[in-house]
Amino acid sequence: MFHIRFSIFLTLALSFLPRTASADVGQYVILSAQYGTERNHVDVTNRLKEIARADQPFRMGNSTFGVDPDPGVVKVLRIFARGPDGRERMFEYREGSVVDGAQFRSWGGGNWGNGGWSGNWNGGGGGDAGQYVILSAQYGTERNHVDVTQRLKQLARTDMTFRMGNSTFGVDPDRGVVKTLRIFARGLNGGERMFEYTEGSYVDGSQFTGWGGGNWGNGGWSGNWNGGGGPGGPGAGDAGQYVILSAQYGTRRNHVDVTQRLRELARTDMTFRMGNSTFGVDPDRGVVKTLRIYARGPNGRERMFEYVEGSYVDGSQFRGWGRGDWGNGNDHWSGRWDSDR
């Protein structure tokens, strides 16, 4: 009887211990959360706080927030946050998509959402002031691709995020082959950077300067389908800010190292959709798994990037992605599943 009582006491005591997950130290502080459309949206900040206390990625929609602010229309959750530079940034999630709070500071703690949002549905205070200036947008394959810069400008005026394919651009430049949209942009260091989106994936314009304003795409692209030109030379598009230390796939309870497999994928794909079949293993059956990429940032600190099973992985932010010059043990991962230090 003593052992049973002690076990119950211990369980209750542990349940009241503070959370210490370091993944709760993201870069962005949430100001407000709004759900709906530009025409009709409601404040869901307090509801989001309740959900965030579980500190798990979740799939959201009308049932999540208990409201349908614009019936018959696809809605979005827009999270407005303050970045490290003090500027407002908008994060958009389409109805039915998965929300992961890892990039938001004190996500599970709920110490956010206390005001300060500009009130602008399309973001304010620099939400449209990304780091990269678009030079050109090309859609297709290396063999056959077409310039879609002007069409991208039209889309950018109305949507921060959109799903793209042949119907988006009104052309199929290489029939029977999976195509990509490649956006070539100039970075802060003057070097050219290439961002790739596989046919059918979502494009998020938040990282591009003047996205909605359309003051870009006026030339300057090197003309190289694989990116290059300016500081860094050819392949500078492969020079992201983060160096990968390790890649783990699964859950906190059961996960496996997939660093070598990720290297193989990176040699052929800047962007790919991942799941059990990608890595040839199901480390925790019946549970939604994640790919966690642990990387070293410009400030020398370890950073964790999480991708929910079935989502797309984009390697453009990782240094040496396509070359595989990472995860070789010269720079070690901390070994912590919940890591941001």
Task: Describe the model.
The chain is an alpha+beta fold and 341 residues long. It folds into 3 domains: 22-103, no CATH class; 133-237, no CATH class; 240-317, no CATH class. It is built from 7 helices and 18 strands. It has helices at residues 2-15, 45-52, 62-65, 149-156, 166-169, 259-266, 276-279, and strands spanning 29-36, 41-43, 58-59, 76-82, 88-94, 98-99, 133-140, 145-147, 161-163, 180-186, 192-198, 202-204, 243-250, 255-257, 271-273, 290-296, 302-308, 312-314. The strands form 6 sheets. It has a 4-stranded antiparallel sheet. It is globular and about 50 Å long.
Task: Summarize the SSE layout with pairings.
Layout: H1 2-15, E1 29-36, E2 41-43, H2 45-52, E3 58-59, H3 62-65, E4 76-82, E5 88-94, E6 98-99, E7 133-140, E8 145-147, H4 149-156, E9 161-163, H5 166-169, E10 180-186, E11 192-198, E12 202-204, E13 243-250, E14 255-257, H6 259-266, E15 271-273, H7 276-279, E16 290-296, E17 302-308, E18 312-314
Order of helices and strands: HEEHEHEEEEEHEHEEEEEHEHEEE
Average of the residue pLDDT scores: 80
Coarse shape: globular
Please indicate the percent range of residues in DSSP E strands (runs of 2 or more). 25-35%
- Strand-pairing-aware structural class: alpha+beta
Low-pLDDT residue intervals, each spanning 5 or more residues: 6-24, 230-237
